[in-house]
Design brief:
globular; 9-stranded mixed β-sheet; alpha/beta; 7 helices; DHBP synthase; 188 residues; 9 strands
Length: 188
C-alpha cells in the first residue's frame, strides 16, 4: 500500500518548489518531475533536465478538481461530468486553456493537459502546495520512464532539488491522454 509522505517531507518538497526547484515524486505508474507551473525558470530547468522541447507542453496535476477550476469553469456540465467521472485517477485530459496558462506550460497548443491524481503522494504534494503542479515523467527524452527512485537518481544525479520518497502506483504504464472536445485518445 502506498502511503502519503510525512509532513516534514512534504514541507521540504514544498520549500524546494517555492525556491524554484524541480523535484521528483512517485505517481500512478512512474516517477514524475514537478515544479511550480508559474515559474518560468523552474519549468526551463525541468525541460533542460529532460531534454524536452517547450513546444510539446506539459501536464498540470492536481489534488482535486477545484485546483483546476480556473481552466474548467467555461466547460459545459456534460464536459465537467466527463472529467469528474474519471478523476481522481490515471486519466489526463486536454482542455482548452483560453490563455489562462503560460506558453511554457501549453507549448504551441490551444489546450493544456490536466489530471487529478489518485496517488497519495502526488495528492498530498498538490494539497500542501495549494494548487496544481507540473507533472512529467522522470526520464530523459526518449528513454523509458523511471519506476524506481534509483533510476531517477541515475537519470538526473544532483540536478534535482528534492526527491519525495514513496512508491509508484500499480498502473502498468503512464496515464492515458484524451482530448476533451473530440474524445480522441492522444495516448491510450
Amino acid at each position: 500500500m502506498v502511503r502519503p509522505p510525512s509532513s516534514l517531507r512534504l514541507q521540504a518538497a514544498v520549500s524546494a518548489l517555492r525556491r524554484g526547484g524541480v523535484i521528483a515524486c512517485p505517481t500512478e505508474a512512474v516517477w514524475g518531475l514537478s515544479c511550480d507551473p508559474q515559474n518560468e525558470g523552474a519549468v526551463a530547468h525541468l525541460l533542460a533536465l529532460k531534454g524536452r522541447p517547450v513546444a510539446k507542453g506539459l501536464i498540470l496535476v492536481a489534488a482535486h478538481a477545484g485546483q483546476l477550476d480556473f481552466l474548467l469553469s467555461d466547460l459545459t456540465a456534460q464536459q465537467r461530468q466527463t472529467l469528474s467521472s474519471s478523476w481522481p485517477g490515471p486519466a489526463t485530459w486536454l482542455v482548452p486553456h483560453q490563455g489562462r496558462v503560460p506558453s511554457w506550460i501549453c507549448g504551441v497548443h490551444a489546450t493544456v493537459a490536466v489530471r487529478v491524481s489518485a496517488h497519495p503522494v502526488v495528492g498530498a504534494l498538490c494539497a500542501a502546495w495549494g494548487g496544481p503542479l507540473v507533472s512529467t515523467s522522470a526520464n530523459l527524452a526518449g528513454a523509458r520512464p523511471a519506476r524506481e527512485a534509483f533510476q531517477v537518481r541515475r537519470f538526473f544525479g544532483n540536478g534535482l532539488d528534492y526527491l519525495l520518497p514513496g512508491r509508484v502506483g500499480a498502473a502498468g504504464r503512464p496515464t492515458s491522454i484524451r482530448d476533451l472536445l473530440s474524445g480522441q485518445f492522444i495516448r491510450d
